[in-house]
Design a protein that fits this description.
287 residues, TIM Barrel
């Protein structure tokens, strides 16, 4: 197992290739065809159960494919204490999946006695950096696996922000000594909503801490765009991916498609577009 020591980088994290999110409407095709797909990402909470059909289906997937866990309800920046009942179930699932890492979102979503089931942005302040980094360090130590936080797509900002998002994101992962689960589409969405240059974001984060990349489509409403995961990846996002991927040294890439689902084969074809950009990268850049 990867030693969870200071100054961790992504060079020791396996590159699983190209994958897609595991979604119920695609099960029939996956089980029937057994497609030559590199790996699947699962939403951890969908399988944190004691038994039944979800785990039966997961076991069938695990017989054939690597699986990586991605969570949506840790709410690392919330003011309530870390939920160790949740973390215990999460860790138990990692023993089943043999996931090489675990990720969740750099957000808040809870208050004592309330869970909003949403990925809400945090204030970009030093106080929040210190708070979130310590909690993230505890989570990684508890899980005994590399832990990564994903950048959000955001639609509002705080008056008390002390820095841009990229400086905040960098500070959290470096102080906690964890990894980045970098969503390239979210960078683009936030850049449009807040009026910054996505290149400035990329240039100011430690890409050697990225262990996985997310790609997705979004809904463009003109004055703002929403990260809906219900359409094809646009050219601008593919261009950002082409810039980011070689600078990571080559990491696992995943296509998210969660609404207005298309067929499994069409989803897989969209994910495979990533190979067009990967193949243009000199091998020396990936060493």
């Amino acid at each position: 197992m990867l030693p969870l020591t200071a100054r961790m980088k992504n060079k020791d994290i396996p590159n699983l290739g190209i994958g897609i999110g595991l979604r119920i409407p695609h099960y029939e095709d996956i089980f029937r065809i057994e497609p030559d797909i590199d790996w699947f990402e699962i939403i951890s909470e969908n399988f944190m159960v004691e038994g039944g059909k979800p785990l039966e289906n997961l076991e069938k997937i695990l017989e054939r494919y690597p699986v990586v866990q991605h969570g949506v309800s840790l709410a690392i920046g919330s003011p309530d204490p870390l939920d160790f009942d949740y973390l215990k179930k999460l860790k138990a699932l990692t023993k089943i999946t043999k996931t090489p890492w675990v990720s969740d979102h750099l957000c808040w979503g809870r208050l004592p006695g309330a869970h909003y089931h949403d990925l809400l942005p945090l204030p970009y302040t030093q106080e929040v950096i210190d708070y979130v980094a310590e909690r993230a360090r505890v989570v990684q130590d508890y899980l005994e696996l590399p832990f990564a936080l994903e950048n959000l797509s955001s639609y509002v900002a705080y008056k008390d922000d002390q820095m841009p998002e990229w400086d905040f994101y960098r500070a959290v992962v470096e102080k906690a000594d964890i990894f980045m689960m970098l969503d390239v589409n979210n960078i683009y969405v936030s850049s449009r909503n807040h009026g910054f240059d996505p290149q400035q974001y990329i240039d100011n984060i430690p890409l050697d801490r990225v262990l996985q990349i997310h790609l997705a489509g979004h809904s463009d409403h003109g004055d703002y765009i929403i990260d809906t995961h219900d359409d094809y990846v646009i050219d601008e996002v593919w261009k950002l991916y082409a810039q980011v991927y070689p600078q990571t040294g080559g990491v696992s890439t995943l296509l998210e498609w969660d609404d207005n689902l298309i067929s499994f084969q069409e989803t897989w074809n969209e994910a495979l577009k990533a190979k067009q950009f990967q193949s243009k990268i000199p091998q020396a850049a990936l060493i």
